[in-house]
Structures are given as C-alpha cells and as structure tokens.
C-alpha cells in the first residue's frame, strides 16, 4: 500500500479535498475490490469536517476508497474539532473528525436536533512539543515548565525565565486555535483552564504552526505527532517529563501510554441515520475500519490493537 505521508501533511488543512469519479462508474456496475471479490459500485456523496489532526488519516482513507468506489464523492474539510461538531449538529456532514472526545454541550445539542451518533476511535496520537532545529539548550521540559511557558501571567516570556542558564530571549509561541481539539486537550492537561499567552500565534492549520517554529530560533509549538514525523528533519522534538523522567513520543511510548500525559486517542463520529439510510456511508465506514490501522501508521500515527477495530466493525453491523 502506498504511503500518504507527503500528500497528507503538505495539503492545506483549510481546503476541501474532494475525490470524485474518475472512471465514470454507474449504478450497479461491478469491479474488483482489494480482496479480488466483485464489489457493487455505489453512487452518493459524503461530507466530513473536523479535526486537522485527524485530517491526514481521513485523507488517506478517502484516497484509497476512491479507487474502489469512484462513484462516491467524499469531501474532507478541517475546520477544527469544534468547527466540525458545529457542522455535524447543523446537519451539514455525515462524519465529524475529533482529536478529543465529544463535549457534554455538543452531546446535548445533538440530542436536541434528534441526531443519534456513534463514536469511532481511529488511532493514537502523541501531542508533540517542538522547538526550532537550532535550539541547542532545551533537552526536555517538565509539565510545570510547560505551564510556565504557555500560561498568560502578564509578563513577556523569555527562555531564561524557565531556566536561568537559557537565553535571555523572548519565546515565540505557536498553538492550535481554540476550535481545535488539540488546543482543548492541551488546555485540559497543561493550561488547566488558565488563559494561554496572549502573544501566542494560534492557527487551525497545523502546517502554519510547523512553519512558524521552523522560522524562528526561539520558537516553540505543539501539534499532532504526524506533523512532527513529517517534518522531523527541520524540527527538534522535546521529551516531556510527566513525573517519571523525560520521555520522547514514539510509536512505542504513545501506544504504551508511557508518553504521559500527552498521549491521546483520535476519533471520528458518524450519524447513525446515515449508516442506515445511505448505503455509501455504511460502505465507507466499513472500509475505514478495515484500513484505519495501516493508513494511520502510513501518515505517522499509532494504530489501535486489532481487536478494537474488530469490535467497532461489529458495532457498525448493528447500525445497518
């Protein structure tokens, strides 16, 4: 299976990627699927929005799915987890990607609209803290030091404020925007609900954050592990000491939970009515769960245990 790393992570996150019929497949025509069996050719449209962190996984899935079902148009946007849920609640999408679990207020809004949904876990991510490649002073950061860097306290933050031996230079900060599930997660485990530094540059586009850290020696930022993995030659990862010594995010430390507290699951949410009433949505979800493990790894995330995908496939069958 081809790698999607370069394609997935250099695409503009705010754009809409639509994969449409290339072969003019019609109605009930059949073609060979990946297993060699005859596959009914479907028609339809599926709209997906949400997390920019989950975007690379979904983009790779949509690309592969388009090879087996070219008559199904699947569009993927990345307005952030919060923005995705807004569209989901408004009835504008069938799937909503999220880098955090759905909030109580979002659940209540969906209930008010009469929308039943199912949570699907896709992979694991290790939220990655990075600095400029020329930064030769940071060897690791503790949770308390992260808080000191990122929480607004009315002062201009300098590296020497974190450790006296570090440069007396202002820290340039790059963070996902407040509609991002990654921001929500960082807010929960690092900021602890306190305001983020006012001078921080916030963006829903993770590539903007990557470029910001790449462009300044005194910069620091954070985003999903896949974006670090794609740019590791031009960024420096920061091991995080969550209380048991510094740990660098890797596939192994993320999956084991050793990279704490910044390891987290990634999700998509699907409308139950779409699975039941739209054959193409059921078919896409089945394809997603059958291929999420491989494609998540392809774009730089960490797959779930195989039994988790199997369990979710069994749940999918009950929703038909």
Please tell me about this protein's structure:
- This protein has 320 residues and is of the alpha/beta class.
- It folds into 2 domains: 5-124 and 265-318, Periplasmic binding protein-like II (D-Maltodextrin-Binding Protein, domain 2), CATH 3.40.190.10; 128-261, D-Maltodextrin-Binding Protein, domain 2 (3-Layer(aba) Sandwich).
- Helices cover 38% and strands 23% of the residues.
- It has 13 helices and 17 strands.
- The strands form 4 sheets. It has a 7-stranded mixed β-sheet with strand order 1-5-4-6-16-7-17. Strands 11-10-12-8-13 form a 5-stranded mixed β-sheet. A 3-stranded mixed β-sheet has the order 9-14-15.
- The chain is elongated.
Share of helical residues:
25-40%
Sheet with most strands: 7 strands, mixed
CATH topology of the largest domain: D-Maltodextrin-Binding Protein, domain 2
Using the CA coordinates, give the radius of gyration: 20 Å
Poorly predicted ranges (pLDDT <50, ≥5 residues)?
1-36
Number of strands: 17
CATH architecture of the largest domain: 3-Layer(aba) Sandwich
CATH superfamily of the largest domain: Periplasmic binding protein-like II
Mean pLDDT: 90
Function: Part of the ABC transporter complex PstSACB involved in phosphate import.
Protein name: Phosphate-binding protein
Domain PBP: 37-290
Family: Belongs to the PstS family.
